[in-house]
Amino acid sequence: MKDGLIKALACDKRVRIYLCATTALVDEARKRHDLWPTASAALGRTLSVGVMMGSMLKSDKEQLTIQINGNGPIGTIMVDAYSDGHVRGFVGEPHVHYQYNDTGKLAVGIAVGKDGYLEVIKDFGMKDNWSGKVALQSGEIGEDFAYYFTVSEQTPSAVSLGVLVNPDHQVQAAGGLLIQMMPDATEEDIVKTEALLKTLPPMSTLINEKESLREIVSSLYDDVEILEEMPVEFRCHCSKATIKRMITTLPKEERLAMIHEDHGCEVTCHFCNSTYQLSEAELRELEDFLERYEK
Ligand SMILES: [Zn+2]
Question: How far is the centre of ligand 1, averaged over its atoms, from the C-alpha of 81 (Å)?
């Protein structure tokens, strides 16, 4: 199935649905960061929530950042999401791999840990930022986001996330489903949704076996109304220019040391693992510019 995102309504518009397929997107993250399977699952689940939350933003001036840290071996998971369906992200330690002995499933909760928090920071461009932070429930990410939406955004929500990784570490299927109860949702809508979730196959199975997102979303309720479809992708907007800007924020001694002692520098973008080399001449040029600017 092709990657993408669908927004829809059901139960006479009292229930909102976000559904995404992120297989190629998560595999791109895996390749860029050399993620081991459990790290692919942890970052992949967070990237999938990221594309769905990004699509809730009102304009391209807005963005949001998700940060998860449960004091587990994977360290911090960080994802930036944008309104047009693109996301970027990384984990502190990409080389983690744990499986549950009984089911053989990737043990995301063990890699992430649950002694910590999930934080979402929304940047509304010109206006103030908004942030919400909740304690992690299980570190499995889906449950943690369901708790976050219900407590921090006061929107009762169900979240299903899945990443299926092949033995050769390639991502076979990934995606996410978010179902939110609008304020006018009825008891019957809630009962209907709970029943649906009880019988819903894992997200990665649906993405792997079904033909399209439309097919999946239409099967959830009897009156599904599709609002919008959009593409999704892993994309970072770092460039030599953004790296230079970052260097100008370093202390002057450090900048001069890069010129006189190291004769150049190499900077890696955390989000996409791209590497940028700046020559001594480029660093001198930057320093000249700063000197003129400072006067
Ligand atoms: Zn980058």
Answer: 13
pLDDT at 156: 95
Q: What is the Å distance from ligand 1's center to 235 Cα?
A: 8
Domains in the chain: boundaries: 4-234, 240-294
27-31, 83-87, 168-172, 286-290: least confident range? 286-290
Topology adopted by domain 4-234: Hsp33 domain (3.55.30)
Structure tokens at 291: 């000197």
**Domain 240-294 carries which CATH code?**
3.90.1280.10
Task: Tell me which long-range contacts 133-141 makes (C-beta under 8 A, separation of at least 24).
Answer: 136/68, 136/70, 136/112, 138/109, 138/114, 139/70, 139/72, 139/108, 139/109, 139/110, 139/111, 139/112, 139/113, 139/114, 140/108, 140/109, 140/112, 141/42, 141/45, 141/46, 141/49, 141/68, 141/108, 141/112
Ligand 1 (ion): which residues have CB within 5 A? 236, 238, 269, 271-272, 274
pLDDT at 295 over 80: no
For the segment 168-199, what is each residue's pLDDT rounded down to a tens digit? 999 999 999 999 999 999 999 999 999 999 99
Distance (Å) from CA 108 to ligand 1 centroid: 25
CA of 28 to the centre of ligand 1 (A): 13
pLDDT at residue 97 above 70? yes
